[in-house]
Design brief:
Blueprint lengths: L8 E3 L13 E4 L3 E6 L11 E5 L9 E7 L4 E10 L9 E7 L10 E4 L11 E4 L1
């Protein structure tokens, strides 16, 4: 979320410098949280996307659910997006991921905000072949 308005994203999966991440797999080295978020301005009880975050986590009226992803969770990066309405703030980027080690979030939009977890410079995930 951007202040009191919700962010919109555009696909940058084929753009440098992040395109090399597309379709790579990672394994978590520690427990993480996954939150269900609504983008409804009235906070309707419908999850629009899930976000993976390291502890201590987040809170607020937009947070509708919280689950734990255990150490060893496998993910695959299936998309990369950039905030398209963040001006005058820096454009936020996020990874769209598929959780390979669980069916619970299958078919759902799951993201990792690169401002919270830089997948290449973290002790949270390790790239696997």
């Amino acid at each position: 979320m951007l202040g009191c308005s919700f962010m919109e994203y555009s696909d940058i999966s084929n753009e440098e410098p992040l395109s090399h991440l597309l379709y790579t797999n990672y394994k978590s080295l520690k427990e993480t949280f996954i939150y269900g978020i609504t983008t409804d301005k009235n906070y309707k009880k419908t999850v629009n996307y899930y976000t993976i975050i390291v502890p201590p986590g987040i809170g607020g009226p937009e947070v509708l659910s919280k689950d734990i992803l255990p150490k060893g969770t496998l993910i695959k990066i299936i998309g990369i997006e950039r905030c398209s309405n963040c001006f005058p703030f820096p454009a936020e980027e996020r990874l769209i991921v598929e959780i390979l080690s669980s069916n619970k979030f299958e078919g759902q939009l799951v993201e990792i905000d690169l401002d919270r977890i830089n997948i290449e410079e973290t002790d949270v995930f390790i790239k696997i072949e």
